[in-house]
Amino acid sequence: MNDGNMVTAEQHIEIIHRFYQVEKASFEEMTAYLLTEYLATHMPVRMVFFGAPADNSEYIAQFDYLRKTVKKYFGDKQPIVSYVAQPVDTGGMAMEIHELVLTGQDMVTYQKCADIPYIVVERKGCKRLFLGGVTGDVLHQNIREQSDDVFSRIRQVLDTEQIPVSSIVRQWNYIEKITDYDNVGHQHYQDFNDARSLFYTNVEWETGYPAATGIGTQCGGIMVDMDVLLCKDETILLTGVDNPLQVAAHAYSQQVLLGETILQAKTTPKFERAKAIWKEDHGFIYISGTAAIRGEQSLEGVGIEEQTLITLENIDYLVSNENLQRAGIPVTKKGELTNFRVYVKYWKDLDKVRRILEAKYPKLPVIYTLTDVCRSELLIEIEGVGLLQ
Fold first, then answer.
1. pTM of full prediction above 0.85
2. Alpha carbon of 257 to those of 134, 190, 267, 345, 374: distances in Å?
3. Are 357 and 324 in contact (CB under 8 A)?
């Protein structure tokens, strides 16, 4: 078991990520082990399980088992459950917990709408919402149909809670066989991006798009997780963070967008390189899925080590003092990274990736999973979170 607790973060931020892993055993045994090992320090709002179902039928059955088992552990106050079909480096399963540090002012409610369970946390001037594990009809809908269905139901939740779409601050988008094409030439990732763009239509993104990851899975169709923050507290700054080393993803040209579309033109992946939340003298930053892209072009043919180093350089500059100040955040030093998820395309590259990361960040909690990245030539993608001071 690997427990990636972030104890030093707790005095600075309100969301804490914890990692747990288990070696291969039966699915039921691995689930029980992970849940037994976890002891809540603060309020758990999300549990993300990573595993290796054989196909979509097994994915659905295992996901249902996870939901029911988590409910037995937590009763009516259960965290949101997500299941990501990505094998992990232990050969077994991994679990990522998101905990919220509550204050005496917070009011917590557990809700359900459009068959989506979600958690609302309110205090004066701020309303936060956590939802996840939102899937379409994995067995009977194509990727575009699933994407439209998922976003339609998420819109119902946001409308019910009177929260605008522009309040989404972090979005995780899991896309089965992300770089594959259907029989009429539609790429899975592009179909998802077109559906997301329609969901975002007529929305005023005054603080920038959400931070986001669009990543492949072995099965499971489309699944979306979200952190949402509607804040009227003027002491809190919420802003997107760009990276001058990379073209903003939402500004990509048609040349790097692949596949056919039913729209007039293919739409771009609409997310910021990072999203920061700052209050008075400290803050928190969501780092979007980041890869070896400079400008808008992938670094092809350079190998896993060079792609890993370039990816880390991109993240390092993204959270640099200079870049954060350019985004209008009054930091006094560079962001302090607190954990990574590392998505690797080939297991044969894992040892090389691990050596590079452990040399640069020897104490950083990391989960490694096996999956395709959003471009077929990319071998690695990294996301994370960090503290700002």
1. yes
2. 25, 7, 8, 20, 11
3. no
